[in-house]
Amino acid sequence: MASVVLVTGVSRYLGGRVAARLSAMPEIERVIGVDVIPPPHDIGATEFVRADIRNPMIGKIIEQAGVDTVVHMNVIATPTFAGGRTSQKEINVIGTMQLLAACQKAASVKRLVVKSSAAVYGSSPRDPAMFTEGMSAKRMPRAGFGKDSVEVEGYVRGFSRRRPDVSIAMLRFANIVGPGIRTSITDYFGLPVLPIPLGHDARMQFVHEDDAVDALVLAVLGDVSGIVNVAGDGVITVGQAAAIAGRIPVPVPMFAAGPLGSLVKRSGVADFSPDQMDFLAYGRGLDTTAMREVLDFTPRYTTREAFEDFARTLRSGGSNNTHQEAG
Question: Would 242 be classed as within a structural domain?
Fold first, then answer.
């Protein structure tokens, strides 16, 4: 049972929400939130400690507080909010390595929960209809967040071999959407005109931000171990999502999608990557049997309902939270 919990990435939207929820639970004695900047939002009774997980100082924090449960949510989805691609990779990969090294040395740590992403499965025309947790990408993510997520999971597996006494739960989330969260996919659907790969209408799954928080809290409080896909029921296509969002789709040839994405990225209104364009062309489906049977979790929102809740924010002219999350 979690007693002293450390949450990384607490100054970003989901990290702050998870920390606030955990700090309100009477069975948890103490919640410590770490990040490089103070949280701009309410984190409840969480104790904020300004620290960089890339610094070995994180080990002293874990040791001195007697942390028994670590929730790793500090994997950044896009370089825009990390100060560039080099900084993004350092935070995601080097940060994870340092955090796991600290956990390895701390005898008090008995549980690790990692927020991962379905981006590890990539997107290609050879993909199965639904990825189960035991499957790997038919075409590995080539760069950016997807590649970082694959490396992060590799380091977590290495840690599990070195510390077999630590129970590890790794949740692979479908694209997270909602009225408060901002991700690369919400930026995309926020564009007034949507470039869509010509001849494709990919199937997509989403998970609502509230369900993402619920699943992470459940993983912290429970004893589930292993990898679990998390997604809302059903799928919608890119074309259906564009209609729900009230956006105009403009088909573009795949060879033009890369330069167009780079142009949009340089404009600062959305962050595009080659892997995201592959996702818009080929989509991705997750088998969620383990989510229901192992994690014992059923999302409150279907894929369509989650996207509709996000789209209401777009149609009302509202703006999403400025803290980028894994999408």
Answer: yes
Task: Output the pTM of the full model.
Answer: 0.91
CB 179 within 8 A of CB 309: yes
- Residue 8 inside a domain? The answer is yes
- State pLDDT tens for residues 152-176: 899 999 999 999 999 999 999 999 9
Radius of gyration over alpha carbons of the chain, in Å?
19
CATH of the domain at 38: 3.40.50.720
Q: Report if residue 177 sits inside a domain.
A: yes
What's the token pair of residue 7? 């949450």
Rounded distance between C-alpha atoms, residue 14 and residue 130, angstroms: 26
What's the CA gap between 55 and 41, in Å, rounded?
24
Q: Tell me: the pLDDT tens digits for 188-226?
A: 899 888 988 889 999 999 999 999 999 999 999 999 999
Would you say 106 and 63 are in contact if contact means Cβ atoms under 8 Å apart?
A: yes
Strands (E), 127-173: 167-173
Pairwise CA distance, residues 183 & 110, whole Å: 31
